[in-house]
Amino acid sequence: MLICAALAGISLAGCSNGEPETKAPETTAAATTAAETKAAAETKAAVKSESGVNMADANVKKKDPSKHYKFGYTCMDGTNPFFVTIEKTMREMVEAQGDELISVDPANDVTLQITQVEDLISQSIDAMFMNPAEAEGILPALDQLKAANVPIVGFDTEVADLSYLVSYTGSDNYNAGFVCGEDLVKKCPEGGDIIVLDSPTMNSVTDRTNGFLDAIKGHNFNIVAQQDAKGNLQVAMGIAEDLLQAHGDVIAIFGGNDPTALGALAAANAAGIKDCRIYGVDGSPDIKAEMASGDSLIEGSGAQSPVKIAQSAVNIMYSYLNGDKVDDRYPVETFLITSDNVKDFGTDGWQ
Question: Which residue ranges make up each domain of the chain?
Answer without folding.
Answer: 32-44+173-304+336-344, 55-171+306-333
